[in-house]
Amino acid sequence: MDSHTVLFGVIGDPIRHSKSPVMLNRAFGAIGINGAYAAFHVLPDQLEHAIAGIRALGFRGLNVTIPHKIEVMRFLDEISVGAQAAGAVNTIVNENGRLVGYNTDGIGYVRSLKEEAEPDLAGRTIVVLGAGGAARGILWALAQEKPAAILVANRTESKAAELAATFDSEFRIQSIPWGDLEAACSTADVVINTTSVGMSPNIEALPLDPAWLKPGSVVSDLIYNPLKTAFLEQAERLGCRIHGGLGMFIYQGAYAFEYWTGQSAPVDEMREAVLESFP
Ligand code: ATR
């Protein structure tokens, strides 16, 4: 670091668990960029001041995490189409004082799914479990791949219907009753768990009966703690191709890096840095 170092960071509450600084600093080092990335614990009542602060200090970029992803949108100058669809911003680019908000979670997830499990999503049938913020975050990006249909099922069915209704029919996103999940899974090419079921410490919990899954289909879980959920373990045993949530984290960071620097992200080094940081 010197007086030319370009500044980046992540804001959230809590934030000390974040692996973004380790991942992004490794990326800057690998490419030879004079940048530094730190984690800032920002409480909700300080969010506006934090954003004013990055303007004043001339940060080039910022990641935004829980609980600020929605609220932060009010303080930005422009919101990308993808972030508008996701209803949330996780990446800010400072374009000469103009703060532009993006969402790299959804596109990061899809890039990871394509790189690590299924390169061609066009014409496929995708089942999405859950209708919370995580589901909303990936639906727009999934729809860009032109699947035949995206079927959203949620324990609270009205939430799935409300979420699907926020998208125009051209996106081919529709809700299905929870009771139709078994039939939907038996014909789906890709099943994605966006619920928190199976997340540490409740690592034995399953979001649906694995017996419903079709051998050969892709089964994906957004959870990355544990790296391989009980749901994925069982799906693998049944002959499904499995995809864990770590890639989503890596690639959301890769897109942020690329937006900030204009250079391709060193994804392998970023993944290595994150894996090394696990206890
Ligand atoms: P996130 O931002 O991680 O998506 P969220 O908005 O609280 O978090 O959404 C959590 C999702 O997990 C919801 O779809 C929730 O279903 P409900 O809308 O019915 O609450 C789902 N979920 C959480 N616990 C669940 C459980 N035990 N069984 C089924 N779905 C569950």
UniProtKB/TrEMBL annotation:
Claim: Acyltransferase is one of the keywords in the record: no
Reaction(s) catalysed by this chain's protein: shikimate + NADP(+) = 3-dehydroshikimate + NADPH + H(+)
A family per Pfam: Shikimate_DH
Chain residues that bind shikimate: 18-20, 65, 90, 105, 224, 252
GO biological process per UniProt: amino acid biosynthetic process; aromatic amino acid family biosynthetic process; chorismate biosynthetic process; shikimate metabolic process
GO cellular component: cytosol
E.C. number: 1.1.1.25
Assigned protein family: Belongs to the shikimate dehydrogenase family.
Protein's name in the database: Shikimate dehydrogenase (NADP(+))
